[in-house]
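Sample 1 of the test manifest.
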Amino acid sequence: MDNLKRCKKCLLPETHESIIFDEEGVCNICRQSEFKNEKIDWNKRKEELTELIESHRGKYDYDCIVPFSGGKDSTWTLYYLMKEYKLKPLVVRFDHGFLRHNLNENTIRVLRNLGADFHTFTPNWKIVQKLMLQSFLEKGDFCWHCHTGIFSYPMHVAIKEKVPLIFWGEPSAEYTSYYSYDQAEEVDEKRFNRFVNLGITALDMAVRLGGKIDERDLKPYTYPPLKELRKLNYRSVCLGSYIPWDVKRQSEIIQNELGWKGDLVENVPPGYNYEKIECYMQGVRDYIKYIKRGYTRPTHLASLEIRHGRIEREEAEKLISGYEGKEPQSLAIFLELVGLTKDEFYKIAASHSVSPWRMKLFEVEAGEKLPDFDAWSRDGKMKREDASSQLERWQKSVK
Amino acid sequence: MIGIVDYGMGNLLSVYSAFDYLGANVIICKHPEELSEVGKIVIPGVGAFKDCMELLKKEHFDEALNEQVIKIGKPTIGICLGMQVMAKKSFEGGVYGGLGWFDADVIKLTITDEKKRVPNIGWNEVSHTSNPLFEGVPENTDFYFVHSYFVNCHDSSDVIATYPYDIPVTASILKNNIFATQFHPEKSQDFGLKILDNFISWNP
Amino acid sequence: MSKRRLIPKLQLKTSHYNPSKMVLVTTKQFSDFIEIGDAVSQSKIFQDQGADELIFINIDRVNKGIDILAGIIHNVSAEIFMPITVGGGVQTEQDFRTLLSNGADKISINTIAVNNPDIINNASAKYGAQCVVVSIDYKQEADEKCYVYINNGSTKTKLSPIDWAVECEQRGAGELLLCNIDRDGMRYGLDNEICNAIATQVKIPVITSGGCGLAKHFIDGFKQGQADAVASGTFFAMQDQNFMQTRSQIKNSGINIRVYS
C-alpha cells in the first residue's frame, strides 16, 4: 500500500479526521468500538429510550420527527421506532439535489409500507450551486449545503410544528471521535459547529459570498437559535446511543421486511450495496476524500468489517488496493454543474491535502459507469462567468 | 434566584453570561442588602487579596455574606480570588485577614521545576472526589487556571479537587453549603458550565 | 508546564461589502484581506471545537476605536466561555478597563507598547501581569537581522524582537505574541528560530503565529520553536481542517496538548 501510518487493527490511516493512536498503535475509533461492545449496558440504555419515548407519546401533533434521507440508517431508524414502539412520526427530508431513482423508489415503497406523513424540502438550485462551489474551493468539500441543510432544516420543522423529540440515526462515535460512546451524543448546535458545518455557519457563508446572496436564502442552512429550541424543550438524539448500531444486520432487516433495495455506488466493492446509495455525487465526494487524505470508501468499509470481526486484515488490504482511488464517471457532471475544468478540480482538491498525504496525479485510473448514469440530471449547469468571481477569490487566497 | 456579588473586582460579565446561558435566574448584587433576596450566592474575583478584602469591608459585603452564608446557610460558590478570600489569611504582598470560612492560608505557588511558570496560566488536569458539584465531570478533565497563590487547607477533608503543579495544588474546596473553585468554570467551556449547572441544582 | 495551547487568531476589519459591519479576515503578509466570517459565529465554532482560548485583533487601519472592539467582545462574551485576548488600537489604561469590563481576560498591546513602554509596567501593576500581552510583529531585513514593526506592520523600528521581548518581560508583560510578517498567511511554516531564541530567554509564555499551512507546522512550533502556544488565523479558514483534527495530529506526535471530546 502507501506509507501512511495506519491503525494496527482496522487500517484507518493517520489522515482520518480526529484519529489518535495509542501506545499499541490501535486507534481511538477501535477503542470506542470495544467500549461499545463491552462496557455499555445496552439494557439500561433501552430503558432510557423507552422512558424518553413515553414522556413524549401522544402529547404533540407527532410523537417525534425522523430526519430521513432514504438511506439505510434513516430507514432503519424509522422502521425501528414504528415497529418497536408504534410511534407516529413526521418524516422530514432535506433534498440535496442529487437523489437517485432507486432511492426515490425505496422511499415510496418504505413509506407506503410503514404509513407516515412525509415532509420534503428542495432548496433553490441556484443557491445550492454557489454553495457547492464555494465550499469546494474553501474547504475541499462541496457538500456544505447538504451537511448543514440535513441538520438544520428538520430543527426548523420541529419548531414550526411544535414537535420537540427528534430521532437521528447512528452516533458519530461509530466513525470518528469527535464524540465518544460514553457520552450521550446530543445532535445540537455544538455538534453542528464541531464537525458538521465544516467550520462555517450560514452567517459566515454570507460573508464569504461577499453580500452576493439574499440572506433569506440561507435560512434552511442556519441552525435555529438556542432560545427557540429551549422554548420547545427539544430533545435531539441518536437512536444509536440507545441501541447498538450494526449496519449490515440492519440493512438485511429493512431489505427483508420493507423491500428496501440497495444499489451500485461508484468505486465501491461488491457486497456493500447498502452503503451511500442516496446521492449521485457520492463518487465525486469519495474521490475528493482520496485526493485529500489518501483513503476513501473501501478503507472505511474494510475498517468497519474488521471491527465487527467479519474479515481479517489481509482480506481488508486486498479490498482497499483493489478498489480505492479511481476517478469516477460522475466527475464530468460535477464539473458542469459548478463550472470548473478538470485541471482546476485536481488543483483545488489537492490544495486541501492533509499531511503527510500527497496524491500522485499521474497514477489516476478511471472507474466504471453505473447503470443509472444517464438519468443523473445535468440541468442547471453553472456558466463560467458566474463561477469566475468565486474562483478568483480562491485563487487570490492560494497564490 | 442567583446573586453575583459586585464589589468592583472580577469579570462579572462572563460569570453572569454563563449562568444566563444555562437558563438560571441571575442578578448582579451591587448592594449587600440584595443578598437577602437571593437563594444562592456567587463570589467572583480577579486581582489581589488585599484589595478584595478592603472592598468587601468598605461596601459592607463581609457582614452581609457572613449573615447570608454562615448564619442562614445559603448555597455559595467562590471563584478564583472569590475562593481565596474564604480562607483565614493570605500572605500575598503582606499578611491580610480573609473571611475565615475555611481553616486555610493563601500562600504562593513555589516550584522547583524550571519549565513551570508562576503565575500558572492555562489548562490543567483536575482530579476530584465524588461529590455533587463535580457530577458528570470525568476524572482528569482540564480546567482553566490563572493564579500565583493558592489555598492551603489545614483540614484536608475540605479539599475536593486538586491538580498537579510540582505538588498537588488545591483546585476546589467544599464545606457544608460553601463551595469554591480556584479555576474559572466560566472560562472552562463545557465542563466548567457543567459545574455551574450542578451548582444551580445543588441542594446541600 | 500547563498543557500547550492551540489558539485561533481572529482578525477584525470593516467589511468591504457591508461597511457597517466588522468581519473576520485572513491576511497575507499583513495585506490581501479576504473576508471569511462573523466574529460571534466563528467564536462559537472554535469553542465547540475545543480551542484553548481566542485572540481577537482589530487590524482595521481606520476604524480603530476601542468602543467598536468593546462592542464586539461584549457580544462574544455572552456566548463564549473560555479565555479571550483582545487587541488592536489599545492606547491607554482606560482602554484596558473598557475591554476588561466588556468580557476580555487579557489585553494585547503592540504599537503603543513600543511608543510608550511604561504602559506595560503600569497596566501590569494595575491589572496584573496575566492581563498584559505584548504583541511583537517583525521582519527580517536585507542585513539578515530582524526588526520590530509597528502600525500594522507599516513602520520599521530599530528594535530587535529578541531584545524587545526580554524588555517586555522585565517591564511586567504576562505573555508574548509573536508574528513574522513575511510568513503571515503564506502557509509554509512558522519562524521557529526567533521563537526559540525568545522562548529560551524569557520565563513568561510565548505564543507563536504566522505561517501555519500544515499540521506539521504546529508541531514544529512546539518542538523546535519551544512555544507554549501556537496561534493561527488563516489555516482553519481555508482548509479542510478543524481544530479537533489538528489537535489529534499534534497529540499523535507526542506533544502534551488538551484532547477534547
